[in-house]
Structures are given as structure tokens and as C-alpha cells.
Amino acid sequence: MKVVLFCGGYGMRMRSTRDDEIPKPMQMVGPRPLLWHIMRYYAHFGHTEFILCLGYGAAKIKDYFLDYHEEQSNDFVLHGNRVELLHTDISDWSITFADTGLESSIGERLRRVRRYLNGDRCFLANYADVLTDAPLDLVIDRFHQSGAVASLLVVPPQSSFHCVDVAENGEIKQLTPIGQFPIWENGGYFVLTQEIFDFLPPGGDLVADVCGALAGEGRLFGYRHEGFWKPADTFKERAELDAGFARGEHPWMLWADTEAMPVP
Question: Using CA atoms, how far apart are residues 41 and 50, in angstroms rounded to an integer?
């Protein structure tokens, strides 16, 4: 399946200053950017045709792949001035770089790359700011079995905040961590069919317009994942992922058991 990655937003919650020109997908986790980790996750399951929906910081993303250095994350042998790679990361990848506008919504970015799907009935999509160890093969199988038009990975709430039960007079009755509530949130990993474009107006939103309409018709499927899932939507979250990587804690790197590990 082709993989559509939304990597054109401003990422204001990630940027340390307004002058920070590095787009969120290019923020580092270990020796490689967040976007690389997400693409390697999909490639691990055999999905190596990527469509990057570019906007803010497009040049940074293009330059990274145009000047890609395999030796930074693979073992190699140096013979004089010649490098013999013992493993490769992206040699079998196909990456389409598509300008989808600086101010476009997620839904509009998706509309603008529809022509690159080449008529494929199903495809994958991702916000490009979340890492997980979800079993993608099973996620896709369950989606097909459901007969739904679209599906999304759903995960338990990740917030550390508490919900407060407070009376009219201000007396607090109870404090409950949000994570203890029997609710689920959108995990940002989608399996979609082209039928979703029937519900997506120009400038529309993938979740509010498409998923909302499909849910009302009983044609939206949710795969519940209780394993590792962590966003990198803020500087703090990205730093936590980077620190975990430095400690050897990287559960999203499902490929690490059989392939060369990136060297810090």
C-alpha cells in the first residue's frame, strides 16, 4: 500500500522560537529525524511507496533525502575512498515529494495528492508525528474484515492531567487521572479507501468531515492498541523520545531485531 504522510504543518508547539526553520518531522530522535523513524516503521511491514505532503519546511525535507547518507545508520566497510554498505535503509523506497500548500488543512493536503495514489483502492496515512509498535499487518487485516470505508488506530488517553468532580460550592469530590477513563483517542494511523474522497470537501478535514460522517453511518473502524504509542507534538515529547532512544528504549523500532541498529 502507498503511505501518505502529512508533513507540511508549522509545528508551532515543537519549535523553540519563531525563527526555528526545522519542520516538526525533521526534529531528531537519535541520529535520524522523526519522519525517518515513521517511514522505517511502514517499510518494516513492506510498505515502501511514500507520498510526502509538503508545506512548511519543504526544502529541509527534500534536502535531507536528496543528500541521504546510508552510512549514518548502517554498518559499512571503507576500502580507501570507497564505502561498501553492509545494510541499507531506503534503497528500495519510492518517495513522492508533493507541494500541498503552506496553509492547507490535512484534508486538503490529502485531496491534492489523490492523483498520486494511481487508483489504488486502499492506502495508509499518518500525521508524521507519532511513533508506535502497533502490529500494522493485523491493523490492516482487521480493517478489511470490518468492511469499513476507513479506520484509525485508537489508543488510551495519554494525558497526565486529572479530571475533577467539583460541586457548585467549589467542594472537590474526586480527582481521576484521565487515563483511567474508559475512552479512546485518535492515534493518527489511518487505513483508508478512496471512497473517503466522496466525503472530503475542498479545504475539509480528514477527521471532522470524513471520519465524523463515516462514524454516523457505521462505516468507520477503530483498532484498539494498548501497546506503545507516543506523540512528538511538542518539544518535550520529542525530547522524551530522544532520551529513551539514548537509553536503548525504542519499542517502535520493530526492525531493530533483524536489521542494523542506528548508531548514536
Answer: 12
